[in-house]
Amino acid sequence: MIEPKRVLRALAEHWALLEPLCAHFDQGTLSLSELRQQVAAQQLDSTPQEITAVLDVWIRLDILVPVAKSPNRFELNAQIHDFLAYLRREHRLGLCLEIEAYLRHLERLAGHIQDAFDIRDGNDLARQLRLLDMRIRDVLKKLDNDEQALVAVAERAKTSDRQIPLRQRYAEVLATWDEYVEPMIQLVNADGAFEQGVRKVENVLLRMLTEQQRLGHLVDDDMLLRTHARILEMQTRAQLTLRHARELLLPLREEARRHNAVTRGAALALSAIRRKGLDAVPQAAMPMFTRPQSTFLGSASQVEAYVYALARFEAKPAQFPKAHKTRVGEPPKAPRTVKEMLDRCEDALPLPDLMVWLLEQEPEGATDELLYWFSRLSRDKRFARERLERREYHTLEHRVSLRSFALLSSADTPIAAPLEPSASTAHES
Question: What are the structural domains of the chain?
């Protein structure tokens, strides 16, 4: 094992020499003589013995490693290379398949977590939860790296040499769109593998939170809540990364496509002109000697009439409502507070169906507000709940399909049915 302090000390001490070498190692390997030349170019006053001592330190600490089947050529250690790229804020775009592989691993870990919980193995459960949290952080790190790499791709395309044809300047943009953005769109789609994997892991964590309240705690609830929050953060980050990629690359891709269409049409027109003359091209397809109407003012009399109209311009008077006029209809109601809704729900106990009671209390309420109160009241600890069968409920604007709850006071006899998470999928139409 190499001592970490020695590696970090060598990186800090020789940073001025290693940083210029990173660009050379990005393009390929270097021989020992080339390495000596690069180091000598950076340290003009160094002797050959000092250069040899520096290279020996790098090789001994595995900063430089020999290439397979070419012991006289060297490259940077992969881990050191990634660390230096992170310090230099260099980001390389990865593969979309890596994210899909991570998702498959997350699903397998969710299965192991469920198995460990079923056999009541607390140690294995905590270990699997830590692994799940680490893999989620790996996905977040990859998404952040990919987003920065996409920004770099767009910047390189915009700042490249204008003398190069547009197709060549935007070749990296087109390849990135085809190889990363398009598969990412399919992955993050509503019915794609990303959403399905997140939903499976989230369901396992929510089920464990509920079952621990009934069967006893094997792990701390805070660990489950943190992992669940990080899952949702990963889902949001993937959507934001995809949206940013489309905002950056789609205009460049469309510009390249338009340029290709114009170039192809111009080539066809020129070939027709060379064969049959200018009359061979339809005048409607190639307007000549035209002036845009938006930049043409007209004759002197037209300009004079336009200026006269501006001088005589009078704005229409604004019509304001009279002060004594009464407002039609009832004044808007103030939003109900959580305390008020909890007190009203507690006074109405027992409730055979919570959603029916909410629709009776708020017949004109918005769907999202009703679903918020449904989630808030069903999770309150002062109520005991029992899951009902799935049915449809009609709000003012939508038809909602969910499994409601029957509520009793927690001071009464507890309901014997197993508890399930109150989060349910709502289908709006």
Answer: 4-87 (1.10.10.10), 96-264 (1.20.58), 338-409 (no CATH)
Q: Report the predicted TM-score, pTM, of the whole model to 2 decimal places.
A: 0.47
- Token look-up 């905590």 returns 126
pLDDT digits (tens, 9 = 90+) for 238-289: 888 888 888 888 887 877 776 665 555 665 666 667 777 666 555 544 444 4
Angstrom distance (rounded) from CA 38 to CA 21: 8
Least Cα distance to 394 among 345, 354, 353, 355 occurs for 355
Contacts 24+ apart (CB under 8 A), 159-166: 166/255, 166/256, 166/259
d(CA 212, CA 122): 12
Kindly tell me the sign of the dihedral angle through the C-alpha atoms of 114, 116, 120, 126: negative
The token pair at 185 is 């769109």
| Residue 29 neighbours by CB under 8 Å, 6+ apart | 67, 70, 73, 74, 75
Backbone angles phi, psi at 404, to 5 degrees: -85, -175
DSSP class of residue 331? P
**For 178-193, how does the pLDDT look when each residue is reduced to its tens digit (9 = 90+)?**
888 888 888 888 777 8
Q: Which residues have CB under 8 Å from 293's CB, separation 6+?
A: none
Give the residue ranges of DSSP H helices in 362-414. Answer: 367-378
Alpha-carbon gap, residue 56 to 60, rounded angstroms = 6
Exposed e or buried b per residue across 296-313, where buried means at least 16 C-beta atoms within 10 angstroms of its C-beta:
eeeeeeeeeeeeeeeeee
Nearest CA to 253 out of 145, 167, 151 is that of: 167
Contact between 22 and 81 under an 8 Å Cβ cutoff? The reply is yes
Q: How far apart are CA 37 and CA 295, in angstroms?
A: 61
Identify the residue whose tokens are 């940073």. 15
CB 345 within 8 A of CB 383: yes
The structure tokens listed for 171 are 């070749």
Return all residues near 427 (Cβ < 8 A) that are at least 6 apart: 399, 400, 401
Structure token digits, residue 14: 């020789």
Q: Which two tokens stand for residue 75?
A: 């490259």
